[in-house]
Amino acid sequence: MVKISFNPVFEKMFFKIKDAGLKDKILKQFIKIKENPEIGKPMMHGRKGMREVYVPPFRLAYVYIKERNEVVFFELYHKDEQ
Fold it and tell me: Which residue among 11, 37, 53, 61 is least packed, with the fewest CB closer than 10 Å?
């Protein structure tokens, strides 16, 4: 089973979200990523090693560490702030 952990910055951003529908969408993505950690789009250049999934209007960035079988969620940022 894949272990999930969160970057403190990510936790702070997630708990600031007031929209229950958006939080629900993000939680559903957590489950999908836990089931298949390589589902996200692999990033290049400065974000190499990270993966992203799109949760409109945000992008959810995470890293899958195969050796430890762990997913670490790093960022939740607006698509336009990329």
Answer: 11
